[in-house]
Amino acid sequence: MSKILVIVIHPDMEASVVNKKWAAALRQYPDRYRVHDLYAAYPSGEIDIKREQALLEEHETIIFQFPFYWFNCPPLLKKWLDEVLTHGWAYGSKSGYKMKNKKVALAISAGIDEQEYTTGGKYKYTLNELTAPFEITFQYVQADYRPLFAFYGLEHRATTSRIEKSVEMYLAFMDKYRGTAAENARSIAGDR
């Protein structure tokens, strides 16, 4: 079974409350996950496009893990999307659609409570609605975009127990991508 590629995008990992814990938990299972920290790999912001494309080609499941702020992703992820998902590689009639059928999902830490991301909440939109550009982007390159994982309320409720629970929840989310198709179907059906 192939490893899951987890692309971590956090501009200040040392100050991270949750993303640092998630990445550390994943690194405990090097046989399951390949953790690729973009800011550590590219401190100058200059992305090795061929290296990134090769990493994507090596993996069938890719998770993008990042904090959600300013209702978007960290700037290096936007730059990564612009530079790595190129015409002729990710899309276009002669590209071979190198991301085709690869499972892609987001894992997001959000400072605001979930109820604020509702029609009646402060921000009027759900996190799924606010991340729709990612869904459309990955559908455009024919990837298999999957439901996101989100952990809410870190701004005012970042207790040790909640953070530890988020690690358990994140690992459970990742486990859904680890089994065979039949195992995953049973797991998903069991969640309903």
Question: Which secondary structure elements does this structure contain, and how are they paired or packed?
Answer:
Blueprint: E1 4-8, H1 19-27, E2 33-37, H2 38-41, H3 49-58, E3 61-68, H4 75-84, E4 103-110, H5 127-130, H6 132-140, E5 144-145, E6 149-151, H7 160-175, H8 181-191
Parallel strand pairs: 1-2, 1-3, 3-4, 4-5, 4-6
Helix pairs in contact: 1-7
Global Rg: 16 Å
Percentage of helical residues?
25-40%
The string of secondary-structure elements, in order, is: EHEHHEHEHHEEHH
Mean pLDDT: 90
> What is the global morphology?
globular
- Distance, first to last CA: 26 Å
The DSSP helix count reads 8
Q: Which percent band covers the strand fraction? A: 15-25%
Question: What composes the largest sheet?
Answer: 6 strands, parallel
Secondary-structure-derived class: alpha/beta
Contiguous low-pLDDT stretches (5 residues minimum) are 180-192
Number of strands: 6
Oligomeric form: single chain
